[in-house]
């Protein structure tokens, strides 16, 4: 069976992967990517249940993840209804008949484990304004199914400080912070986890691209320079063709420009005299 899921709102976000790091010790909740440190140590094992009513009979799949290591199974869980020991992400599908589940699971797939071959990959996510919005974690699992496809689990840890209850309910509903996105090609599982632990106060922004857009001040200086240059070129051309001017006289308002240093000097002298006053006589002058 291959579950199908609707598109997530996450697909509308601009995801900017900044750096990818491999960690041979596995995903244990503490991550540093792109110079930003994340700590998911307070997160607990999570499960979310998704119904697939288009199948006959209806199926429900439970997706379970332990962000701190291998999944801890209840003692009452039958061995045929759980993934092997060392599994970090597991999906268990059970058929339902007349609102009652079958005694045992129809399929059990380990999509990520903590073996030495499973090296997690991390990449920070930023929006269009380059603000940090979370962390992408890619986990790897063993080969599954008849085609022996290597399993991959992608978890979008999204910064959400408003999420209050991060504990799942019995059916994976309510304010469950973990949600199922898709399971594609019987190989790639994508989950989304909204949590305040994916936020980072004062996270440094990566260096901006030197080929990026210019700021307002840069554009203002450039436009002003081009306007002055166009004025001088056009004025010089006009003086040359209309009056036959040469040399300094080519420039528009050449007399004003020639006298500009003296005008500035005179202005500064008058300003200094104004601030210094006319002396210490209390404002009286001799008759």
Give a description of the structure.
One of its GO terms (biological process) is protein transport. The protein is an alpha+beta fold. It has two domains: 9-198, Cation-dependent Mannose-6-phosphate Receptor, Chain A, CATH 2.70.130; 216-276. It is 18% helix and 31% strand. The protein has helices at residues 216-243, 254-276; strands spanning 21-22, 30-33, 36-39, 46-52, 59-65, 87-97, 100-101, 107-113, 121-126, 132-144, 149-159, 178-184, 188-195. The chain has a six-stranded mixed sheet, with no helix packed on it. The longest helix is centred in the last third of the chain and has 28 residues, at 216-243. The chain starts with 20 loop residues before the first strand and ends in an 11-residue tail after the last helix.
Quick description:
By secondary structure, the protein is an alpha+beta fold.
Count of discrete structural domains: 2
- Tell me roughly what share of residues is in helical segments: 10-25%
**Mean pLDDT across residues:** 76
Number of strands: 13
> Which CATH architecture of the largest domain is right?
Distorted Sandwich
The largest β sheet comes out as:
6 strands, mixed
Low-pLDDT stretches are 1-24, 202-210, 280-287
Overall geometric form: elongated
Binned strand content: 25-35%
User: Would you tell me the structural class of the helices and strands?
Assistant: alpha+beta
| Straight-line N-to-C gap | 112 Å
What's the CATH H-level homologous superfamily of the largest domain?
Mannose-6-phosphate receptor binding domain
Q: From the 3D structure, determine the CATH topology of the largest domain.
A: Cation-dependent Mannose-6-phosphate Receptor, Chain A
Order of helices and strands: EEEEEEEEEEEEEHH
Strand order of the largest sheet: 1-9-10-11-13-12
- Gyration radius, in Å: 35 Å
CATH top level assignment of the largest domain: Mainly Beta
The helix tally amounts to 2
Family: Belongs to the ATG27 family.
Subcellular location: Cytoplasmic vesicle membrane; Golgi apparatus membrane; Mitochondrion membrane; Preautophagosomal structure membrane
Organism: Orbilia ellipsospora
Protein name: Autophagy-related protein 27
